[in-house]
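Sequence, please.
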C-alpha cells in the first residue's frame, strides 16, 4: 500500500470513529443568551460569591438580580433532615421526616431502570417539599472492592447495569424539578484513605469500567450536576483534574452543568477554577477571597469566572426555586413515595438458596422464632455520612407481625450484640480502663443473648435468623476490615443449627458477606438489603409467598475476600491511617481540612497512597470468569418460587456492521405453579479478538413477568457500537471485528442459550 493511501485510510478511520462519538447537546444550553445578559450586570464580587458555599448546604444567588440561592440536600436514598445553616446540628423539626428509600445496592438488585425512574421521582417530590434545588445523588461509583464502606450506596460492580439504573434515576429526579449531582466523580472506589489515595489506572479500564455510569447519565439523562470526588486520579485531585472535568466531562460528553466539590474536598484556587470546578463546598477557603485576589492580579482571566458562573446559572434557570414560604410546611414523607419505596424493596430481595422451606406454610400455625438483632434494628441512620430521619421504618419483625397476624406464633430473641465500629465510633474517645470495662460487660451480654437465642430456637418449628451488617459497620469514611459477618453471627448460627436445623437466614446488608458458615446451615438464604421505610413489609411478603422473590445480585459473592481482584493482586491501598477529610470537617477540626501545598515528585512505587488498578477491566464477575476462580454465588443470581425454561434462540442476522443493532430473541416459559418475574440477561463472549477482553460482559437485560404455564418471545437489542473498546493509541473508541457468542441466561453463572454471530 502506498504511504499516501495509508495515511488517507487512517484519517478516514479516525474521522469515522469520532463521528460516532457525537457530543451530547444539553437542554441547559438554551438559556445561554439570557444568561449572558445577566452576567454583564454582575460585579466581579457577585460572580465570585456564587462559586463557594454560603451555608453548609447552600451556595449564593444574587438577590438584586432575582437569582435565588442554590439549596442542596443529601440523597442518595432519602432527603436528609434539616440542619443549622453553619453546622451539622439538626434543627429538630417534625416536618423533615422523610421516606427512607432502599439504598443503592437494593435499587440495583431490582435490575429495573423503570423502578430507578420511579425512585428518582419519589426523591425529587420530597426534595421539592423541602425547598431543595439539587439532590446530592445518585451515587454511582463502581463497586470495586467487597469491603467498600459505601458499597450499600452504590449500584453495582458492572458498568452496564449501573449506567442503565443511573440514567433512570437521573431522569426521574430531573423530570420532577430537581437537579441531580452525580457522585463521586471519579474512581472513588474506597473509603479508607479516600482523601489521599491516588488512583493509577489505564485509560481503557477507566473509560470502559469506571466512567460509563457517569457518561450515560450525562449523555442520556442530561444530568445537571456532578460532584468531584476526594481522591486523586493519576496524580491530580478530582476537584482540579483537567482531564476529568474539562477533557472528558465537558468536551467529550458535552456536560453543560455545574461541578461542585465534595465537602472539604478542594485543594487549590487557580487550578480548581481553571480545571472546571464551579462551587467549593461548604466554605470559601479557596474560591472566596483567594480567587478574587487571583482575578484582580491577572492570574485567572475573568472570562473563566464568567464561564463558571454561566454553568451555574444554566442549572439555576432550569430548576424553578421553591419559594421560602412554601417549603417545609408539611411532613416530607408521603404515601405515594412510601409506595415507591415498597415496590423497590419488594423487587430487590434476592433469594440465594431454597431447599423447599420457602414460602413459609402457615396452614398448621407454626411457631416461628425470629432471631437476630437486625430483626428490630432500624437502618435510616448510623455511622457517618448520609442518613434519613424517617417518618417510619418497618423492621423485619414488625413486617412479619403485620403480615402473619394470628396465623402463627412469633417468638423473638436478639441473639447477638451489635456495636459501632470503624467510623461509626470515630468521635468517641475512651480511656484504656473504660475500654476494658466495656469489653467485659459486652462479653457477659453476648453470652446471655446467645443462650436466650438457643433456648428460643428449641421451641420453634422454623427459625428465621435475621443478621448481616448495620449502618455502623458499612459507613462513610472507612472500609470494612473483611467481609465476615460481624458480632460473632457465624458462631451463633452454628449453635442454633445444633438444636433446630430448619433455619431461614436473612442478611440485612448492603455489601457482600462471607457465607461459608451460614450457607450450608441455612435451608433458605436471602439478602434483604438496607431496604428502607417499607423493608420489613416487603421481606414478610416474600417469606410468606405473597409475592415471588425477583431480586438479582448486583455483585458477585466470592468464596473468600482474597479471591477478589484488588486483594488477590494486593493493589488495594489503605494508606497511612490519616484522618478522614469529611470526619475532620464534621468534627470542626481543621486538621481534617485540606491545605494548599506544594507536592514533591515521589517514586510512585514507594508511595503508600498510590492504588494501582492492575486488574484493569477485570472487575467483579469479569475477573472470576476470566481467571476461572470459584465463587459462592454469581453476579445476576436470584431464585423465584417458580421455574423458567429458555428455548429457541435466534438473531435477525448472522453478520453485523458497526452501525447495526444486534437483535437476539428467544422463548421464555414459566414452567412452575406461581406467577413470577425473571430477569433475563445477555452477555457477550468474543472469539479470537484482536485485543484482550474479559471472558464475558453484560450487554442487555430485561425484567419479564409471566403467569404459570405462559410463554413469551423476548427480544433484546445490543447496539454494535456498544461492543467497541477504548483504543489507548488513538485515544478513542475503536472496533474489534470478530465472531462473538451471545450468551443468554439467568445469571453470569447460569447461561441457558448460546448463538454465534460475526462482527465485520
Amino acid at each position: 500500500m502506498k504511504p499516501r493511501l495509508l495515511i488517507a485510510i487512517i484519517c478516514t478511520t479516525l474521522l469515522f470513529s469520532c463521528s460516532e462519538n457525537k457530543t451530547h447537546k444539553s437542554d441547559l444550553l438554551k438559556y445561554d443568551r439570557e444568561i449572558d445578559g445577566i452576567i454583564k450586570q454582575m460585579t466581579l464580587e457577585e460572580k465570585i460569591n456564587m462559586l463557594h458555599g454560603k451555608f453548609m448546604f447552600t451556595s449564593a444567588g444574587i438577590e438584586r438580580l432575582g437569582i435565588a440561592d442554590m439549596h442542596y440536600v443529601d440523597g442518595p436514598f432519602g432527603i436528609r433532615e434539616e440542619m443549622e445553616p453553619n453546622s451539622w446540628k439538626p434543627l429538630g423539626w417534625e416536618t423533615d421526616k422523610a421516606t427512607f428509600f432502599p439504598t443503592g445496592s437494593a435499587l440495583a438488585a431490582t435490575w429495573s431502570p423503570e423502578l430507578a425512574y420511579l425512585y428518582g421521582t419519589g426523591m425529587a417530590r420530597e426534595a421539592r417539599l423541602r425547598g431543595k434545588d439539587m439532590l446530592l445523588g445518585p451515587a454511582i461509583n463502581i463497586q470495586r472492592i467487597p469491603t467498600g464502606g459505601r458499597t450499600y450506596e452504590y449500584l453495582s460492580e458492572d458498568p452496564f447495569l449501573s449506567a442503565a439504573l443511573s440514567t433512570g434515576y437521573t431522569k426521574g429526579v430531573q423530570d420532577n424539578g430537581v437537579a441531580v449531582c452525580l457522585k463521586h466523580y471519579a474512581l472513588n472506589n474506597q473509603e479508607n484513605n479516600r482523601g489521599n489515595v491516588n488512583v493509577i489506572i489505564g485509560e481503557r479500564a477507566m473509560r470502559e469500567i469506571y466512567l460509563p455510569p457517569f457518561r450515560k447519565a450525562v449523555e442520556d439523562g442530561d444530568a445537571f450536576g456532578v460532584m468531584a470526588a476526594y481522591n486523586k486520579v493519576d496524580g491530580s485531585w478530582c476537584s482540579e483534574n483537567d482531564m476529568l472535568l474539562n477533557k472528558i466531562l465537558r468536551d467529550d460528553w458535552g456536560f453543560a452543568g455545574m461541578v461542585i466539590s465534595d465537602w472539604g474536598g478542594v485543594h487549590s484556587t487557580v487550578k480548581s477554577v481553571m480545571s472546571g470546578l464551579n462551587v467549593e463546598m461548604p466554605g470559601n477557603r479557596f474560591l472566596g477571597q483567594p480567587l478574587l485576589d487571583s482575578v484582580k492580579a491577572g492570574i485567572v482571566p475573568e472570562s473563566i469566572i464568567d464561564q463558571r458562573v454561566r454553568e451555574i446559572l444554566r442549572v439555576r434557570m432550569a430548576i424553578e426555586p421553591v419559594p421560602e414560604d412554601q417549603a417545609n410546611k408539611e411532613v416530607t414523607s408521603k404515601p405515594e413515595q412510601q409506595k415507591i419505596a415498597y415496590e423497590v424493596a419488594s423487587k430487590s430481595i434476592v433469594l440465594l438458596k431454597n431447599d423447599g422451606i420457602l414460602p413459609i406454610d402457615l396452614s398448621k400455625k407454626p411457631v416461628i422464632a425470629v432471631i437476630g438483632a437486625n430483626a428490630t434494628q432500624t437502618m435510616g441512620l448510623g455511622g457517618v455520612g448520609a442518613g434519613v430521619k424517617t417518618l417510619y421504618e418497618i423492621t423485619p419483625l414488625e413486617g412479619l407481625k403485620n403480615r402473619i397476624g394470628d396465623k402463627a406464633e412469633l417468638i423473638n430473641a436478639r441473639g447477638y450484640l451489635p456495636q459501632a465500629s470503624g467510623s461509626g465510633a470515630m468521635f468517641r474517645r475512651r480511656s484504656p480502663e473504660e475500654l476494658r470495662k466495656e469489653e467485659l460487660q459486652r462479653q457477659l451480654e453476648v453470652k446471655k443473648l446467645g443462650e436466650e437465642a438457643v433456648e428460643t430456637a428449641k421451641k420453634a418449628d422454623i427459625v428465621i435468623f435475621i443478621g448481616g451488617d448495620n449502618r455502623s459497620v458499612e459507613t462513610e469514611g472507612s472500609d470494612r476490615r473483611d467481609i465476615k459477618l460481624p458480632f460473632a453471627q457465624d458462631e451463633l448460627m452454628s449453635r442454633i443449627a445444633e438444636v433446630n436445623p430448619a433455619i431461614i437466614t436473612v442478611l440485612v446488608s448492603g455489601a457482600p458477606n462471607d457465607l461459608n458458615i451460614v450457607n450450608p446451615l441455612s435451608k433458605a438464604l436471602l439478602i434483604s438489603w438496607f431496604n428502607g421505610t417499607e423493608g420489613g413489609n416487603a421481606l414478610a411478603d416474600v417469606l410468606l409467598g405473597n409475592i415471588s422473590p425477583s431480586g438479582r445480585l448486583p455483585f458477585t459473592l466470592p468464596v473468600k475476600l482474597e479471591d477478589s481482584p484488588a486483594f488477590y493482586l494486593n493493589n488495594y491501598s489503605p494508606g497511612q491511617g490519616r484522618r478522614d477529610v469529611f470526619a475532620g470537617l464534621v468534627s470542626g477540626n481543621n486538621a481534617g481540612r485540606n491545605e494548599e501545598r506544594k507536592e514533591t515528585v515521589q517514586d510512585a512505587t514507594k508511595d503508600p497512597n498510590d492504588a494501582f488498578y492492575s486488574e484493569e477491566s477485570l472487575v467483579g464477575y469479569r475477573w472470576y470468569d476470566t481467571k476461572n476462580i470459584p465463587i459462592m454465588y454469581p453476579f445476576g443470581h436470584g431464585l423465584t418460587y417458580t421455574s423458567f425454561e429458555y428455548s429457541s434462540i435466534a438473531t435477525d442476522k448472522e453478520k453485523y456492521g458497526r452501525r447495526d443493532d444486534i437483535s437476539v430473541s428467544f422463548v421464555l416459559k414459566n414452567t412452575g405453579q406461581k406467577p413470577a418475574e425473571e430477569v433475563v440477561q445477555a452477555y457477550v463472549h468474543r472469539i479470537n479478538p484482536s485485543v484482550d477482553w474479559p471472558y464475558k460482559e453484560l450487554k442487555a437485560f430485561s425484567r419479564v413477568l409471566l403467569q404459570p404455564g405462559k410463554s413469551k418471545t423476548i427480544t433484546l437489542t445490543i447496539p454494535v457500537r456498544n461492543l467497541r473498546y477504548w483504543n489507548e493509541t488513538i485515544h478513542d473508541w475503536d472496533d474489534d471485528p470478530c465472531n462473538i457468542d451471545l450468551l443468554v441466561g439467568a445469571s453470569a453463572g447460569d447461561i441457558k442459550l448460546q448463538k454465534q454471530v460475526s462482527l465485520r
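The first strand starts at residue 53 and ends at 55.
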